[in-house]
Amino acid sequence: MPHINLPDLPGIRGPMAFRPETAKPLNELAEVLLRDDNNTLSRGERELIGTYVSSLNDCFFCQNVHGAFAGYYLGCDIPAIDAIKKDYQSAPISAKMKTLLAIAGSVQKSGKHVTPEQIEHAKKEGATDREIHDTVLIAAAFCMYNRYVDGLATMAPQDRQFYVNRAPQRAAEGYAGFDLYK
Amino acid sequence: MAYINVPDGVPGIRSLVMFRPETGKPLYALAQVLLRGESTLSEAERELIAAYVSSRNDCLFCMSSHAAASRCLYGKRENIVDEVLKDMDHSQISDKLKALLRIAGKVQVLGKEVRPEDIDAAKKLGATDREIHDTVLIAAAFCMFNRYVDGLASWTPTDPTMYAEMGARMARGYVMPNTPNTVS
């Protein structure tokens, strides 16, 4: 049961419906960071960063919602996403993406864990300043979303297929301006 | 020096939102509604939660700037801020605020660290659902802001007078800095 009296909706939707004033900038941030097409990182790559950080933060709801988005955009199934979460170094993703996930993993621990060597490594693999910026902010933002969802003990459907089934429709409607109750 | 090419001589998060105003806009809007919007927690109390979490995340820029904003908002009772940052349990704040800061401290570690006992303790002291919600979200948001500021190694001034000026400006509200593309 959630720690406070929230509308009966899955995950972050409960507190967002409880407090629409804060939901607005939270959703606008997700939209520009994860879904805006004015970005050289694909939607799938950005969702993968969110998924990876959510798994490190052990947030079931966020890693399944965003893992399903990543799978939808990248054209892979849950086991493939799970394999990346478990060991991205051995996964069939680009060398640049591996350096960005390394940075995201450091951000998850604390901002100060990011080292000049990690940044240099990412730049050598072709990462731009803007891509590094977005990677750090996506990782930092999920350290917020994960804490918001779990810190209020929100309810998360346990069937992982639930998230996969909803991903195409959710991807089409986006993070801003959707109906929380649908 | 920051890890990416942000404007010179601009401290902390201001340099980052000038680099990327598209994400800066919702970040400032979130700070404004959480820390300055309508609430039964005072602005000084909410800034104190922000400074407390930033201190636990060892983020000197956010801790110093939000502590300065809180001091400014507490006015004659500004000593409260340093008391809390030094030893929250023995500070002179209300028991309700202590219970909320304990919840914020748990959120700083990880969401799942918040236990029903922590919530019950706050409710028994009069905290409302909305105050608990906002405390959790302020603490979670500063786990983001702190990582953003330090993860890109943005400039952290060491001169206390700079933070006093920042605090006075922040006390009036969160407004995006002008970017090179904006007419000032």
Protein architecture, described:
The complex is a heterodimer of chains A (about 180) and B (about 180). By secondary structure, chain A is mainly α. Chain A has one domain (about 20-170): AhpD-like. Chain A has 9 helices and no strands. Chain A has helices at about 15-20, 20-35, 45-55, 60-75, 80-85, 95-110, 115-125, 130-150, 160-175. In chain A, helix 4 packs across helix 5 (about 80-85). Chain A is globular, with a radius of gyration of 16 Å. The model of chain A has no long low-confidence stretch (mean pLDDT about 95). With about 180 residues, chain B is mainly α. Chain B has a single domain (about 10-170), classed as AhpD-like (Up-down Bundle), CATH 1.20.1290. Chain B has 9 helices and no strands. Chain B has helices at about 10-20, 20-35, 45-55, 60-75, 80-85, 95-110, 115-125, 130-150, 160-170. The longest helix of chain B is centred in the last third of the chain and has 23 residues, at about 130-150. The model of chain B has no long low-confidence stretch (mean pLDDT about 95). At the A-B interface, helix 2, helix 6 and helix 8 of A face helix 2, helix 6 and helix 8 of B.
